[in-house]
Predict the 3D structure of the following.
Amino acid sequence: MKIFTNEQIRSIDRYTIENEGVTSLELVERAATAIACELISRWRPSHRICIFAGPGNNGADALAVGRMLIEQGYNVEIFLFNIFGKLSDECAYNRKRLLEIDNADFTEVVGGNFQPPDLSSDVVVLDGLFGSGLREPLTGGFQSLVSYINGSEAYVVSIDVPSGLFGEWNENVLSRNVVHADLTLAIQFPRLAFFIVDNAEFIGEWKVLDIELSQQEIKSSPYDYFLVEKSDARNMLRPRGLFTSKADFGNALLVAGSYGMMGAAVMGARAALRSGVGKLTVHSPRCGYNILQASVPEALFQADHHDIAITDITLKHDYNAVAIGPGIGTHDVTKKALESFIISHSSGKPLLLDADALNCISQRRHLLDALPPLSIITPHAGEFDRLFGEHNTAEERLKTAIEQSAYYQIIILLKGRYTAVVRPDGKIYFNSSGNPGLATPGSGDVLTGIIASFMAQGYIPAVAATLGAFVHGYAGDIAAERHGRYGVLASDVAECTGRAIRDIMQ
Ligand SMILES: NC(=O)C1=CN([C@@H]2O[C@H](COP(=O)(O)OP(=O)(O)OC[C@H]3O[C@@H](n4cnc5c(N)ncnc54)[C@H](O)[C@@H]3O)[C@@H](O)[C@H]2O)[C@@H](O)CC1
Ligand SMILES: Nc1ncnc2c1ncn2[C@@H]1O[C@H](COP(=O)(O)OP(=O)(O)O)[C@@H](O)[C@H]1O
Ligand SMILES: [K+]
């Protein structure tokens, strides 16, 4: 699903109005119908619903929902904040329609002395104060109202975006000036802000409501951000022909493991094999020999000269993919081996670097310059900050990822709830699969194995990273079904990888 900016959404709205014979009022009516249906499916008519409407079309949506709920016999209390004496045409029209209803519990707030209603835990608040038309962070009376809503026990549903939150970047927005929604009902598209963990407390659960904006315009509009869903992953995966052989599925090298961390190599190797690589070699210190041969007999073992650490990374074959990092530690000898490998790596083939390889590089940052274009790095927030400096927010981190990806021409896969695959052209692909069961040791090693496997099979790096993140999350979802979110082990995720690919392709 494409994720558009406010400006792009406005232009798609405009296109729909101009080319599909729909009026702006009809779009408000569609949005309100979808929102009302959602509320009706969740709460009974006796439930008290308190609606706060602002002066623009977010408010128009809210007023129209109020009317629809009253028509369905709901117990609704509506407040319209017309502080500046200026309503959008759609808002003014919906105000008029509400006034035509006998006994509607409707209050228009025009001045400063507003007595807020009691918002106990059995109330549902519908927040239609501001949506995509927000110009600046909320102040004054709106700020107080937001604080009042946030301080209450009510269940809060926000229309489109929580009021006070910008759809994209929220650098100067304070938590107390944004509605903290339990549920956000996004009109037609989710927003970039939904995928940034800093905003999780505002957005709550979210759902997209389709108001049938022009599909043609949606398809043809360019985008910078994308949410990867099952159908996208399906389109990326290539079916396996009946006459294919091992040789068609590539040859991967996984440089992983050290004394006490051989599990990382085992999990990465299993995940690579479960995602279909043709041939896999694991390069580890000698101490890993028995462990790897016994637990992953399908993989070849290439012993380092050293007993407990990796000291020599040289390519004895022309591998289709080389992944380095899981469990290698940050011994000085390993840092040196990594440095001389990267500097002398002359084939120009992209590399995949994860975990301790990134920690090693963070102390030798010039190595980033030496990475072949379209190499993939897969840091979590801590590894990212070690590489590129401390960040106070996830939003700042994502902006840095965009800059650094372009600067070094590498793909940065920033891990988290919505893993972001940041590409050098500035595009970000957010992953939708996965669950908190994946927050378990070794989970990242499994991801590395999957991506390496896809790279070896000939998927271009950007696709290998995006598809790898989706398959990993999806395998985690299957593992969580079996073992529960507390019980998932990274090995379970690796084992479920093949099934995940099968299910995605069905
Ligand atoms: N055709 C459309 O435009 C559609 C719009 N829809 C709804 O319309 C919303 C966007 O409507 P609008 O563009 O009217 O924008 P909003 O309803 O978000 O708000 C715009 C109004 O708020 C005022 N405002 C902005 N920032 C303020 C601040 N910090 N303090 C005080 N006042 C402030 C503006 O002056 C303007 O009057 C969407 O979020 C969505 O809910 C949907 O109904 C679908 C169709
Ligand atoms: N709450 C979550 N929801 C979805 N995916 C998650 C969640 N927490 C972690 N993950 C995923 O699990 C993996 C964890 O990787 P990482 O932090 O490197 O683990 P480790 O270092 O233990 O191998 C990442 O792919 C991340 O996106
Ligand atoms: K809102």
In short: The CA atoms of residues 150 and 476 lie 34 Å apart. The two ends are 19 Å apart (CA to CA). The first helix runs from residue 6 to 19.
